[in-house]
Amino acid sequence: MSELPSIRWGIITTGLISSWFVEDLVIPQENPKVKHIVQAIGSSALEKGQKFAAKYCPQSTPTIYASYEEVYNDPNVDVVYIGTPHSFHRKNCLDAIRAGKPILCEKAFTLNAAEAREVFAAAAEKNVYVHEAMWLRHRPLVHELRRLLYEEKVIGDVFRTIVDFALDVDIPSLPPTSRYRDPALGAGSLLDLGVYALTWAMLTLDPKSPGASELPQVLATQTHLHGVEVTTGVLLRYLSSGRQGIVSSTTMMPGDPAHVARIQGTKGYIDVEGPAASMPLSFTIYEKNATEKVGKKYDFPRIGRRKQNELMPWSETLRVMEIMDEIRRQGGTRYPVDV
Questions:
Q1: Name one GO molecular function term (predicted).
Q2: What is the total count of domains within the chain?
């Protein structure tokens, strides 16, 4: 039996999100197609990188660098994972592209659509692969849900989705330099939480494949505290179908630990369940006129935090960024990088 091909990863930054990614990357799988290797880790200090490797890479010995540039230039690194905060994604991506390295970059992909276009233009010129790590779009649960909605039409014609993502972040207690409080770092609920709520609405209201999806009409409002957006409310309307999405996010209080979203149709509705909009674990289908509210439940066991599946085109990343730009324009949230 031939040996599996290997993919050697360079990990940019050693924060929480990067630790989640690395943990999931090395989870044993039944029928793996490739062998994932954490080849290099870039951090602001060697000690931080060494501690990260000792904790999350016990079965390997990645090269530790005290700069990101060294990871990009390492000839043994096949692909770069970027797990830095939103405000650094543009620079990190452009630097990796200059080195000719394929990229998997966390969401929100950049601070605004203009930055995303700049990254994609550079990637196209250099012929470098770039992919946004919106793992929600790759989950088997989402693929099965969309099949039931638009192939089997289990709840008839979909007309509305309601979704919220909420966390309790004590903004006033944080230092001005915190990424949760500094607008220059993309502070606010929209880029951290709202991007998931927005993605749920777009996944369940538009049956078209990514790249051919419709750009919905947007009506948005935002509330600010200490100069930071803390609550966003959005009404999406798809002009071709009349479908509506009611989307919200906030850092003012915890969300419902069991409920992610509700998709409503002419013959019933579907509730998506899970601890957060970023972590759906099941969904239940309810008939419209059922005498007892007992639905058919579909469970999807949690195996790690991420799944791999079909590609997500750049046009879909740009569509989400453009919608979030419009939400911020209407809501009065500006970042220093905005033109």
A1: D-xylose 1-dehydrogenase (NADP+) activity
A2: 2
Averaged confidence pLDDT in the chain: 91
Per-residue pLDDT tens digits for 104-146: 999 999 999 999 999 999 999 999 999 999 988 888 999 999 9
Cβ contacts of 190 within 8 Å, gap of 6 or more: 222, 229, 232, 249, 324, 327, 328, 333
Q: What is the CATH number of the domain that holds 228?
A: 3.30.360.10
Q: Provide the residue range defining the domain that includes 15.
A: 6-133
**Residue 312 in this model has a pLDDT that exceeds 80:** no
Whole-number pLDDT of residue 292: 67
Per the document, the length of the chain is: 339
Matching residue, tokens 């039944």: 30
User: Is residue 50 predicted with pLDDT exceeding 90?
Assistant: yes
Token digits for 47?
A: 């000690």
For the segment 214-226, the average pLDDT, to the nearest whole number, is 94
Sheet holding 259-265, edge to edge: 217-225, 228-237, 244-250, 158-166, 259-265, 268-273, 282-287, 296-299
The domain spanning residue 125 has which CATH number?
3.40.50.720
| Cα distance between residue 109 and residue 119, in whole Å | 10
Evaluate whether residue 141 is within a structural domain.
yes
